[in-house]
Amino acid sequence: MQRMNVGIVGTGGIALASAAWMAHRGHAVSLWSPRGGGADALRSKPLAASGVLDASVRVGVADTAGELAHGADVLLIAVPVNWHRSVMDALIPHLQPGQLVIVSSMSSLSALYLYEAALERGIPISVASFGTTVLTARRHDGAAVKIMTRRTSLGVSCLPRSGQAAALAACESLFGDGFTVDENALATALTNINPVAHGPLALFNWTRIERGENWPQYHFMTPRVAAVIKQLDVERRAVANAFGLQVRTIERHFAQSFNTESEQLSDIASELHRKRGGPPGPTDTQTRFLSEDMPYGLVFTLALSHVAQIPAPATEATATMAGLIVGEDFTAANDLIFALRLPAESVSGLLARVNASR
């Protein structure tokens, strides 16, 4: 296995978990906090990981996007998707031809935005994407993270498609085996099931969130809540089919991520609650379940449904109700839809872009 220099954007749970995992595998890792200060503790102490990885590793800290990108073989973007465009814009002037950037996880075709924006500057890079994260984790503090899960199977796509083999090899070197190939970046974007699960969970448990109650997510994914989630999932897969793509069901996602055995979604939720006892649902009204997953998940799916001219009534209703309950127009919050020119795009035109060979 070749030792690589890896730069990670972000200092949240997934960023710290990824840093610990990669460093433990022998790679040289540095982190950059886009908001500043998030990695300061790591200047003087090692990063401690617990859970499925028990390790203490040393990682570097970069002060700027340029410092992080300089000399990196691979860059990993591990920030919420509503930060993707701003951190990508910060990175682009410093990217070097031939670098690989991994977006973990990718929504709203942010990988396509990065790939095309770099090309416009004459910088040919490869951009790999995951539909969800390789690891699930919670940050304890600036130098400690608990890694709960290492997913056993995860799809990866690459722009351009000619870089797919090299991207797959890099992911396996960084994280280990278990990666499969997604057809393209659009398939990866539509593989992300967080929006279809998180929207109904947040809306139908909103008073618990407002009251700051302790509520285990899967216990409150009751049969009727699961039925709404299932309808959103049906519409997500219908949009994918309109672009000629087959994406896994939400039930299959849970089976691949957590080795569940139940067939019905409500039974899967009960099984996960018995096995894991959580995780706890959000207790902050600014939860990413709505602030991130609505504009960059369901609203993005709606934009694709308009391109494909197919109905998605449950998706539209959920996104609208989410906006009503927090007093925000989520259709205006996504800063990628217009940057990617989706309202003027066609099915064939978008497919040609995500299937670019170089």
UniProtKB/TrEMBL annotation:
The lineage of its organism: Bacteria, Pseudomonadati, Pseudomonadota, Betaproteobacteria, Burkholderiales. Residues 6-102 form the Pyrroline-5-carboxylate reductase catalytic N-terminal domain. Residues 183-324 form the Opine dehydrogenase domain. Pfam families: F420_oxidored, Octopine_DH. InterPro entries: 6-PGluconate_DH-like_C_sf (IPR008927), 6PGD_dom2 (IPR013328), NAD(P)-bd_dom_sf (IPR036291), Opine/Lysopine_DH (IPR051729), Opine_DH (IPR003421), P5C_Rdtase_cat_N (IPR028939). SUPFAM superfamilies: 6-phosphogluconate dehydrogenase C-terminal domain-like, NAD(P)-binding Rossmann-fold domains. Gene3D superfamilies: N-(1-d-carboxylethyl)-l-norvaline Dehydrogenase, domain 2, NAD(P)-binding Rossmann-like Domain. GO terms for molecular function: oxidoreductase activity. This is NAD/NADP octopine/nopaline dehydrogenase family protein. It comes from the Bacteria.
